[in-house]
Specification:
183 residues; Nuclear Transport Factor 2, Chain: A; globular; alpha+beta; single chain; 3-stranded antiparallel β-sheet
């Protein structure tokens, strides 16, 4: 009975005539989400969807990082790989190989990695694990004259399984890659 009386009182209060507020909040008074500072290279900034601490953000970051690896084929700029690596041995190896090839006047042709499958990321606090399956086009390393260099070149691979470890960095509002293994 008490619940019924309280419910009636609440509903009655809502049906009473109220004066409308004539002033609306100014745009500066409304709450907005602050813009995140840009991360990544100018020609390929990290998308906002990769900067959320959830499964969707972990997947988006994984795809973004693979795109950064693919970017090195044209730019020979490995700095973004290092920017988002948190002790990732294979990521740092890819960056070092790219920097050494560029220093030797070499360039990459193709070698594009295409993710074919991403399993739903497993999140545990600020750590994520992402299982992927991907294909890699043949990577051709060429010297300054455009001649193929065997050292560093590789064949095409399909159906490679891999695991990517991530750690959330709250200061940058970004995931960082801690591990990239290919099975």
């Amino acid at each position: 009975m008490v619940g019924l009386l309280i419910g009636t009182a609440v509903l009655t209060g809502c049906s009473e005539k109220q004066e409308a507020n004539e002033s609306l909040p100014t745009p500066s008074a409304t709450e907005t989400t602050p813009d995140l500072p840009p991360l990544g290279p100018e020609d390929m900034p990290m998308p906002a969807e990769a900067r959320t601490q959830d499964a969707a953000g972990a997947e988006a970051f994984t795809r973004y990082y693979i795109d950064l690896i693919n970017r090195t084929t044209n730019s020979m700029d490995a700095e973004p790989l290092r920017q988002f690596s948190d002790g990732c041995r294979d990521c740092n190896r890819i960056a070092t190989n790219t920097e050494e090839a560029a220093a030797a006047g070499q360039a990459y042709r193709d070698g594009r990695i295409a993710i074919t499958t991403v399993a739903p990321p497993v999140i545990d606090g600020g750590v994520a694990s992402v299982a992927v399956i991907f294909d890699q086009a043949p990577l051709i390393v060429v010297d300054a004259s455009g001649n193929r260099v065997e050292d560093g070149s590789s064949d095409a691979y399909t159906g490679l399984t891999g695991g990517i470890g991530l750690r959330w960095d709250g200061e940058r509002d970004s995931w960082l890659i801690t591990d990239f293994t290919v099975g």
